[in-house]
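Example record

One chain of 179 residues, shown exactly as stored in the release files.
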Amino acid sequence: MNEPQQETNEKLVRIHQARNEWEGNIIAGYLQGNGITATVRTPPELPPLNTVEEMSGRAEVNGIFVLEHQATAARRLLQEFLNTATDPQMLEAEAAQQLRLDRATIARLRSELREEKQTFEFLGWLMVVFLVAGAVLWAIWPAWLKMAPPGPVLRWLGVVALALCAVFVGSWMARRLKD
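Predicted structure tokens for this chain:
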């Protein structure tokens, strides 16, 4: 029963100075998730995310505070958090440990890759169809456009350009299918 009474009267200790309110909230959340009573202290006169005050360098802005009896454990957890978040080898090891490759996972990944490839092939052929349709519309210049057709030189240059784009995209897609 003494523990809650002790916490209400206990001194808060600053263990870290966050660069901004976002970082402070992430660190405080990490500490709280590990059983440490932590808070980000920003003076009440500051509106949330006030960049001018954050850049002033005042110590009370975005300070991570914990109860005095938890300061040692909090510093240890904070150091572990900061090292993990910035050490590329540790991140790679953690990712490799979390990714368990077995036959089912490999089969699922291959299936998803195949579906993605088919989607992009479909979109490529759809682009060819739209380019051909654009070339045909430029060639016939339908009356429903309700615009005067451009001069013959510009009109046929547009048709040739759209047709060449359609041929280029079509040949590129055909090469992709062979691979």
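Notes: The first strand starts at residue 12 and ends at 17.
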